[in-house]
Amino acid sequence: MTTTLGRTVRLAAMLAGTAVMTALATVTAGAAGVDKALHNALPENYQKDGVNVAVFNDWPPDEFVENGELKGWSVDMAKAMSERLGVPFKFEPTSFEIIIPGLASKRFDAGFSSFGVTAERLEVLDFIPQRKEGTGYAFLKGKGFKIEAEKDLCGHSVALLTGAWDFQYLTKVSAEQCDKAGLKPIDLQQFTTQNAAELAVSSGRVEIVAAGSAKLAYVAKQTGKYDMASLVSNAVYNGIGVRKGDPLGPALKGALQAMMADGSYKEILDKWGVGSTGTLDKAVLATKADPNP
To answer: Measured between alpha carbons, how far is 293 from 275 in angstroms, rounded to an integer?
Structure first.
């Protein structure tokens, strides 16, 4: 049932989102950084109208909104790509589940949302990886858990975001490395937001939180509440999503390669504290036909 309060809350959220969009609106390319070859390779509609970019609004330090401002290392990369391509990027911060349908319907042209590149997603999108990242693990300072291999998770409670690929992966780990070895299974507990998962650990209700390793390292640094395990599981590419076969994909790949060559790629990652692990040495385009280029 829809209540007056529910309608009011949704309206407030919509107005807040509109305010953020208005504040962020468009990043106009700076002529000094334009790569003419990359610009000329873009279809005419992108040269004329720019690129509509969906950005995940709640995944620091990659992409997030803070005090009405869109921030993150992936956002900084998007701005740098806009400069090199010589076309404006029009950002729309949004929730994660909106982005893939929005790309399919052509509401968006690119999704900067730290997509993990999986076989399922390659059925509908091509990807330009920005980093390689796996599942990291954090726990309250002073707990002293030694999580150096996946079997060390057996018997522990682990908080995860509902529907995250980490859940499917750790379910398999629990069956193969805990159950078969006669160890206690991993007690996987799902939460509807990442903040709720982290709160479950900080309040002592759950022992360990699992999420993207770069995100957890950022949270640990920002809050000072957590220690990071040395283990990083199941590293995969993550990065930018575009429609299958869209010429925008090779253009973004070219822009990223230019950033790698001039050092700005690493500078952006270092600025956000994620440049020590998971960096790439060449830009690639991951497709269903070539998922591990």
So the answer is: 22
Q: Which of 117, 86, 85, 122 is nearest to 251 (CA)?
A: 85
How much of the chain exceeds pLDDT 90, in percent?
A: 70
- Tell me, what DSSP letter sits at residue 286? B
Distance CA 128, CA 244 (A): 12
> What pLDDT digit, counting tens, does each position of 15-42 carry?
344 444 433 445 444 444 899 999 999 9
Q: Hey, which residues does 233 pair with through a beta bridge?
A: 135
Q: Alpha carbon of 218 to those of 73, 83, 118, 136, 282: distances in Å?
A: 12, 27, 24, 11, 24
CB 108 within 8 A of CB 54: yes
CB 54 within 8 A of CB 102: yes
Side-chain half-sphere CA neighbours of 61 within 13 A: 21
- Predicted local confidence at residue 264, as pLDDT: 96
63 vs 130: CA distance, rounded Å = 13
Structural tokens at position 126: 């091509």
Long-range contacts of 172-180 (CB under 8 A, 24+ apart): 173/233, 177/150, 177/151, 178/151, 178/153, 178/154
pLDDT band at 287 (very low <50, low <70, confident <90, very high): very high
